[in-house]
Amino acid sequence: RIIESSGKLKISPEQHWDFTAEDLKDLGEIGRGAYGSVNKMVHKPSGQIMAVKRIRSTVDEKEQKQLLMDLDVVMRSSDCPYIVQFYGALFREVGTPNLLHS
């Protein structure tokens, strides 16, 4: 059983949204990697199109720690012009984060 959680989505300094996975419409897979897949999605309330990285949950404590460290770096680097724009993250009860990027 998966229980959805809610999160905060920051599209711009002026646009903040409370959201759940139900607010995202999947437009199809655009890539796949070692940790999961990337899907093109639209945030229905704002119309913002974004890439959502779905990361498979893992029970490996070392991998979980590395994932959280990577997420922390992306969150701290959101103003860097050399990386994608980070909008937010949504975790499900099973531990699968959805990372939202432009």
UniProtKB/TrEMBL annotation:
Source taxon at top rank:
Eukaryota
Q: Does the keyword ATP-binding apply?
A: yes
Enumerate the spans annotated as Protein kinase domain.
24-102
Q: What is its EC number?
A: 2.7.12.2
The record's listing under InterPro entries reads: Kinase-like_dom_sf (IPR011009), Prot_kinase_dom (IPR000719), Protein_kinase_ATP_BS (IPR017441)
Residue numbers binding ATP: K53
SUPFAM superfamilies for the chain = Protein kinase-like (PK-like) (SSF56112)
Please give one Gene Ontology molecular function term for this protein: JUN kinase kinase activity
* Entry keywords, A to Z: ATP-binding, Kinase, Nucleotide-binding, Phosphoprotein, Serine/threonine-protein kinase, Transferase, Tyrosine-protein kinase
> What's its catalytic activity?
L-tyrosyl-[protein] + ATP = O-phospho-L-tyrosyl-[protein] + ADP + H(+); L-threonyl-[protein] + ATP = O-phospho-L-threonyl-[protein] + ADP + H(+); L-seryl-[protein] + ATP = O-phospho-L-seryl-[protein] + ADP + H(+)
Pfam families given in the database record: Pkinase
Q: Which family does it belong to?
A: Belongs to the protein kinase superfamily. STE Ser/Thr protein kinase family. MAP kinase kinase subfamily.
Q: Which PANTHER family match?
A: DUAL SPECIFICITY MITOGEN-ACTIVATED PROTEIN KINASE KINASE 4 (PTHR48013:SF15), DUAL SPECIFICITY MITOGEN-ACTIVATED PROTEIN KINASE KINASE 5-RELATED (PTHR48013)
Q: What is this protein called?
A: mitogen-activated protein kinase kinase
From which source organism is this entry? Accipiter nisus (Eurasian sparrowhawk)
Lineage at the top is: Eukaryota, Metazoa, Chordata, Craniata, Vertebrata
